[in-house]
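Make up an example, fold above all:
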Amino acid sequence: MSTAIEVEGVSKQFVLRHTRSIKEAFVWLMKGRKGDLSEKFHALKEINLVISQGEAVALLGLNGSGKSTLLKHISGVMLPDSGKVRTRGRVAGLIEVGAGFHPDLSGRDNVFLNGAILGMSEAQIRDRFDSIVEFSEIGQFIDTEVKFYSSGMYLRLAFSVAVHTNPEVFLVDEILAVGDEPFQKKCIAKIKELAAAGKTLVVVSHDLDLVAQICERGVILDHGQISFDGAVDRAVAELRR
């Protein structure tokens, strides 16, 4: 089975700047700015992960464990400080609500903009446009500027565009929680359909029951490192202990 995603020795750190009291800042200045008022947070530490084509993998862990950061590296939204990420085929999905949407453009224009960003040609977007709008349930609001959309409307249109790109690799972050329950069920059914069609899925979610339904493999991150990689039911059991 060919490799869809390869993460090799990936590390990422962020600088956290803390708000200090006036007294602390004054002392820092009087000492000639010795020491640092900021602190480094290691979000990912030497991550190695290989995902085969057609696998459905859940990235699990507590808040701050690094799972969303890892997903952003796989999507190409973030670049690592060290290491490499390789993906094969078209990568699409939902990392942040409305990422790639322009607030001053209509839903219609954003379908074409976002579709192009995700690798579709204009002809492909035109061919799938009615299906995108129908799935999103945006209807009469398709020609309204998206800055007037609710977060749920944003989500519906973004998800619909992403799934209609027919990606080889589909990434989903927690944002499924933004939509209303009927649409969530519709999204989950579509994700299962992609999995059944042999697409590669990587899902970040705190909903352990949901990931157990969709994924067969679970990867647990803990303080930026992989602490478990195996069957999803065992991963879920580990987190529930």
Q: What stands out?
A: Residues 3-8+51-240 form a domain with the Rossmann fold fold (CATH 3.40.50.300).
